[in-house]
Amino acid sequence: MNKEINTKIVTFIFLLVVAVLLIFLNKIGYLDQVKNYTVYFTSPVGKMFQLSSNEVNEFFWTLKSIDKFKVENVELKEENLKMTYEISELKEVQRENEILRKQIKFSESSCSEGVCIEWKMADVIGRDPSNFGKHIFIDLGRSNGIQDGQSVVASGGLLIGKIIEVFDNSSKVMLITDSKSSINSITQTSRANGVVKGSYATGVKLEMINQSEELAVGDLIITSGLEDKVPKGLIIGKISDIKESANKVFKSAGVNMFVDINRIEKIFVAIKS
Predict the structure, then answer these.
(1) Residue 182 near residue 196 (C-beta atoms within 8 A)
(2) Fewer CB atoms inside 10 Å of the end CB: C or N, the chain?
(3) Would you write out the chain's pLDDT as a tens digit for each of its 273 residues?
(4) Does residue 68 lie in a domain region?
(5) pTM (2 decimals)?
(6) What's the domain range around 207?
(7) H or E stretch including 161?
(8) Contacts of 20 (CB under 8 A, 6+ apart)
(9) Are the C-beta atoms of residues 251 and 110 closer than 8 Å to each other?
(10) CATH number for position 233
């Protein structure tokens, strides 16, 4: 037992002397060369461990960045969808306000000769799939004062058709492009009387005009007011070309409309008061 203790004491004294000696030698510069060799031979290993450490750090940084980017991407998508929806809402409000402004401007002159017209706005809620370009359905009906024969216009007083069937809360509209449609009309400049008839393949055309009447390309065609529920002065279109024949009693003209009926979403029903 004493021998073991003595060995430990001797070992401790030896290590202490070596440590003191190394400190002394290092202080006077004798160990500089040894340190240089040590650094030279151990630096590749240090570099290897450093590179490995850097790669590990970069790997975990990349994982962390990916998660961060995923979260930011989701947030950006949500923000983008929100902005898209808000922009869409603003566009719809702006479009509806524009339609109303046009109709208000048109309505300023809707009273004449003691007869006034009330304009009721409605949404297009359906189209007849078996008669594309001939009929639409609107969300106003008998409960709103709608009656057969009343004229239906787009904003600005552009005639697009007439009511032909009325339900409690909706109505069916025959468009002027329907081959069964006919509207008494006159040309605005020459005051030539005629009838605008539907011809879906070409839109509408002006017929039943006396050969003696003067027509001019570009002249406006408006409603004549001869029909009880169709106010005078509604715009139908303008003359695009004139078809004359010496062998016929009447002549006709092609008509360009100012509105694409298949794209209309809101309309106005003219109610005489």
Answers:
(1) yes
(2) N
(3) 555 666 666 676 666 666 665 565 556 655 555 555 554 454 454 445 454 555 555 655 665 666 666 666 766 766 665 666 556 555 555 655 565 555 545 544 466 666 677 888 899 999 877 656 688 999 999 999 999 999 999 887 889 999 999 999 999 999 999 989 999 999 988 899 999 999 865 589 999 999 889 999 999 999 988 888 888 888 899 999 998 877 778 899 999 998 888 888 889 998 876
(4) no
(5) 0.61
(6) 115-272
(7) strand 158-166
(8) none
(9) no
(10) 2.40.10.340
* Residues ≥6 apart with Cβ < 8 Å to 230: 149, 151, 159, 162, 183, 184, 223, 270
Which helix (H) or strand (E) is 251 found in, with range?
strand 250-256
Quote the tokens at residue 153.
């216009």
Q: CA dist 253 to 184, 207, 223, 224, Å?
A: 14, 7, 16, 17
Quick one: DSSP state of residue 267?
E
* Domain presence at residue 91: no
Decide if 170 is inside a domain: yes
Is 5 part of any domain? no
Pairing of strands 203-210, 193-199: antiparallel
Structural domains in the chain (count): 1
Euclidean distance between CA atoms 56 and 62, whole angstroms: 10
Closest to 253 in 3D by CA, of 211, 207, 214, 203: 207
Nearest residue to 119 via CA among 157, 175, 81: 157
- Output the six-digit token pair for 46: 């240090």
Structure token pair of residue 125: 């809620």
Rounded CA separation 182/197 (Å): 5
